[in-house]
Amino acid sequence: MTVPFRIPTTDLDYCLEQLLEHKPPKILPPETIQQLCHTLKTQLLSVPNIMPLQSPIAVVGDIHGQYHDLLEIFQIGGAPPTTNYLFLGDYVDRGYYSVETISLLITLKLRFPDRVFLIRGNHESRTITTNYGFYSEVLSKYNGSADVWSYITDLFDYLPLGATIDGKIFAAHGGLSPSCQQLDQIRALDRFREIPHDGIMADLVWSDPDTEIMDFKLSPRGAGYLFGLDVINKFCHENSLVQMIRAHQLCNEGYTSYWQGKCLTVWSAPNYCYRCGNKASVLEILHSNYDSKRTSTTTSNYEDRFDSTKICLRQGVLPGQFFNIFEASPENDEDTLKGKSVNGINSEDEYAVNNGDFFSGFFREKSRKQHVEYFL
User: Fold this and answer.
1) Alpha-carbon distance 91 to 124, whole Å?
2) 282-322 confidence digits (pLDDT tens)
3) Distance (Å, rounded) from C-alpha 147 to C-alpha 69?
């Protein structure tokens, strides 16, 4: 029997220390990145195309190299392993810190494999990352070498294409495909390759919902499709689902609800590209007991924090769900003002490490932010 190779926990904690305890964060050496990617690839070989996950879980949309805003997400939702996270893809490109962002997520996935889950977006592609920033950033930060880009883009070929939550919710990066009516068709795909130009795999990462149509329509993006109400109703009926959650589209308020919550878009990159001025969100799914506002085991910590009925009406979500809305981190704002494209913000501040848990220690020193927009 083959025993998968695992990096010692102490080594993973050291990687987290380098990324989390320094300003600017220290990028990991190419040899370390290679080892991390190789180890994660061996583990992902046994992961199905659609991961079966359970609530409670926090769902995160596009990050696009906005490293400091990723740290904001962990302040808001809680640091792994105290919170389960599903990331919906588009970890790199556009922002100034794609290397640090994907390095942190890979390390967290290895350190907390049952708490952190990653799926593939349209930017997890060799072609896209060559044109939208990640490739150039790697060359800049690794003295002209593209090795780290090769290690990470090879890893992208192994990422799952979607997830189900409680067997009732389907999560993917983009949307639906006219070539796919059953989840089993996605489960049967050969995902271990570059994203093709068309077909089910391409549509999953490129398609978008459109409230103006009922069926499918070619997407103005040049890949994937627009899909309407009839499409998602049929897909949910055929697969015993109640909802689809996806990312892929910039939302000024951080989220969009379509068709009374039948489809949700979660966007997690505030002030996108350091100039759009948009808010961002994390979708928190506490339970999928849609016949009741709350359950004793999954929502007891939240009973005094929000009124489920008001949230459902205001945000267009299902019971047990809410969008936790946030704005850009101060470091994001500083990058915006200075137009920086360098690694970090040149601060000497470091955070204490408590009990040897570098990740939780980083956030233990910072007050947990309370974003109250969703309370109203």
Assistant:
1) 8
2) 999 999 887 654 444 444 454 445 556 677 777 788 889 99
3) 26
Domain locations along the chain: 9-338+345-375
Look up residue 81 and give its two tokens.
Answer: 């392993």
Mean pLDDT of 324-333: 88
- The set of catalytic residues is 123
Question: For 29-33, 108-112, 172-176, 273-277, which range has the lowest pLDDT when averaged over its residues?
Answer: 273-277
Its CATH class, for the domain covering 9-338+345-375, is alpha beta
List, in order, residues 6 or more apart from 86 with CB less than 8 Å away. Answer: 53, 57, 58, 59, 60, 117, 119, 163, 165, 171
Answer yes or no: are the C-beta atoms of 280 and 255 closer than 8 Å.
no
pTM given for the model:
0.86
**Positive or negative, the Cα torsion across 316, 313, 267, 338?**
positive
What is the C-alpha to C-alpha distance for residues 215 and 200, in angstroms, rounded to an integer?
A: 16
